[in-house]
Amino acid sequence: MMNKNSFYAFMAAALVTASCTTNEVPNDAISQSVTIVADVSSQSRAPELGEDGSGTFTKGDVMTLCVENTPSLDYAYQEDGLTWGMLNPAGITGQIKLSACYPKQTVSQEGTFDFNTLTAVNGDLLLSAAQTVTVGTAEAIRLTFNHALHCLDLSFTAGDGYSADDLKSLTLSLNAKTTCVVDASQGAIKEVKSVKGDYNVTGTKASFCLVPQPTADVTLKITVGGEVKTMLLSDLLQQLGTSQLNLKGGAKSTITLKVGRDSIVVESGSIGAWEDQVTVDGELTIG
């Protein structure tokens, strides 16, 4: 006959066994492959972006997938095999939070990474905000990547005292904050660092991807024909009639400046959304 102590020990073991059985992801789900299907055309750069900022990913583009409280995973689009065991190594049941970023990043143990637009090979940063995914679902999942930064496009035309040929040697030094800290598990910028740097270009056109920051913190120094002129971006936007205190992520500013010997004036411009975001229509077959 089982004594009272043996009975309690037996029941405890039974409860532990039942708990493990109900909380673990089934083996067939762990090994089930994840298939991502998207409408992708052959492009020369990755991802291929149109003038409005919309576009698609191409085969082999490497993005970083992030599940909260789980090591991040680099995934080559349409090339790498992917299983639930790889995406969810902790074996979390129920639901998980899935986010992504492009280009791929090295995510710290704290779940963040720094992105420096001045030193990054690809200055554009695309983030897919965290979304809830049911573990084991076979439903299609749509990853929508948004531009996390602000796009500033500048062009220069010749004013009094300068010719079009003179402007070919025009140099622009744009001083601005360079680095943001991204919460990879949320797919969002956490903070912007105070460190600043100079973006230098030559010619009549310039395009920058800038971290969100006050427009009064962005300085332009234009040199042409031995003359140097310095101005704040906030003043230029005010001339444009679209005064703006901060550069917002996902937005785009386009400004054309007429450069003369005596002055530089805003000829035209616009501020708006970076249009359609880069999208990946993905169908994840997870069992």
Number of domains: 2
CATH fold annotation of the largest domain:
Immunoglobulin-like
Main structural class: mainly beta
Query: Would you identify the regions where 5 or more consecutive residues have pLDDT less than 50?
Result: 7-22, 35-46, 276-287
Task: State the distance separating the first and last CA atoms.
Answer: 46 Å
Helical segment count? 5
Strand order of the largest sheet: 5-4-7-9-10-23
Number of strands: 23
Largest sheet: 6 strands, antiparallel
Task: Report the β-strand fraction as a percent range.
Answer: 35-45%
The helix/strand series, from N terminus to C terminus, equals HHEEEEEEHEEEEEHEEEEEEEEHEEEE
Shape summary: elongated
Describe what is shown at a glance.
With 287 residues, the chain is mainly beta.
Q: How would you describe the overall organization of this protein?
A:
There is one protein chain. This protein has 287 residues and is mostly beta strands. It folds into 2 domains: 26-148 and 276-282, Immunoglobulin-like; 150-273, Immunoglobulin-like, CATH 2.60.40.2630. It is 14% helix and 44% strand. It contains 5 helices and 23 strands. The protein has helices spanning 4-23, 27-31, 84-87, 164-167, 233-240; strands at 33-34, 48-49, 55-56, 62-67, 73-76, 82-83, 95-102, 112-116, 126-134, 141-147, 150-158, 171-177, 179-183, 188-192, 196-202, 205-210, 213-214, 219-224, 227-232, 246-247, 251-259, 264-273, 278-282. Strands 5-4-7-9-10-23 form a 6-stranded antiparallel β-sheet, with no helix packed on it. The longest helix is centred in the first third of the chain and has 20 residues, at 4-23. The protein is elongated, with a radius of gyration of 26 Å. The two termini are 46 Å apart. Mean pLDDT is 79; it is low at 7-22, 35-46 and 276-287.
